[in-house]
Inverse folding.
């Protein structure tokens, strides 16, 4: 066995141990659980919810930023948390809260961990923003629903980093992505079940990256996620080995002019609105 194979075997064992001992997996922050509980209460008041959210300054800032983002196109940006809640509504607040929590769950142990995390997070943010934009243009799915589903669809990719704590060095980029290909889906399902999120998000994990899977004729949540994943990969790595866009099951559901393809093999719709998609992404960074 050569050195690379030996290293991979060691890292595989570490990730396998993490999956077997689920108590070691990242848990949602207590403030997130409180907010989600309050959002589901029959007697929830916006003023009380605003006070609760204000206990998390980072989440408060993100909600303010998101409510003023290019995705919502509000005429007058909200100035208070109470105004933010009125603009977004409870379901959107819940989704943005979950998106914020995902990023905050993963402790960065070293420069190596941080580099891997930031690269993965940047791709996830770009993918989620693309999904939200497509949802708004195509319809069928609420943009914030598509955004959160896209983020959660690869939470296992971030979860793999949770295995490397203490004295364990971060793997090389090649080893990390090899581990993600092998474990990220299973790990993501375990994590979402632990967090008690809707089953629909778990189903998206199972079908993400299945380019040619045909389930129904209408554009579904998974289709938006897969189209977004495809374009995020192409933007982050133009040399990535991907099938032609027109061969994707999700693409076949698009109607003209949404299905127009640019010279670089991407949806013209996304190429022409790249600045808007990146503006949405800025609200999540």
């Amino acid at each position: 066995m050569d050195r690379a194979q030996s290293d991979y075997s060691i890292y595989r064992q570490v990730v396998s141990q993490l999956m077997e001992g689920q108590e070691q997996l990242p848990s949602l922050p207590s403030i997130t659980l409180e907010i989600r509980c309050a959002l589901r209460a029959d007697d929830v008041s916006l003023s009380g919810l605003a006070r609760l959210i204000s206990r998390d300054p980072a989440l408060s800032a993100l909600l303010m930023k998101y409510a003023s983002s290019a995705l919502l196109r509000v005429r007058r940006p909200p100035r208070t948390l109470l105004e933010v809640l009125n603009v977004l509504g409870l379901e959107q607040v819940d989704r943005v809260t979950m998106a914020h929590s995902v990023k905050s769950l993963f402790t960065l142990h070293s420069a190596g961990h941080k580099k891997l995390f930031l690269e993965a997070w940047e791709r996830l943010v770009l993918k989620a923003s693309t999904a939200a934009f497509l949802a708004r243009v195509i319809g069928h799915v609420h943009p914030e629903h598509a955004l959160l589903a896209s983020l959660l669809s690869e939470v296992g990719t971030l979860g793999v980093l949770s295995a490397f704590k203490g004295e364990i060095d971060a793997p090389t980029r090649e080893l990390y992505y090899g581990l993600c290909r092998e474990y990220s889906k299973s790990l993501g399902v375990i994590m979402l079940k632990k967090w008690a999120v809707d089953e629909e998000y778990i189903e998206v994990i199972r079908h993400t990256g299945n380019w040619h899977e045909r389930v129904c004729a209408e554009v579904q949540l998974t289709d938006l996620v897969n189209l977004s994943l495809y374009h995020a990969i192409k933007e982050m790595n133009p040399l990535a080995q991907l099938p032609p866009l027109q061969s994707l099951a999700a693409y076949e559901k698009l109607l003209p002019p949404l299905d127009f393809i640019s010279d670089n093999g991407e949806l013209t719709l996304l190429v022409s609105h790249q600045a808007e998609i990146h503006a949405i992404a800025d609200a999540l960074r």
Observations:
- Residues 108-282 form a domain with the Hypothetical protein af1432 fold (CATH 1.10.3210.10).
- The chain has a mean pLDDT of 86.
- The radius of gyration is 19 Å.
- DSSP finds 14 helices and no strands in the chain.
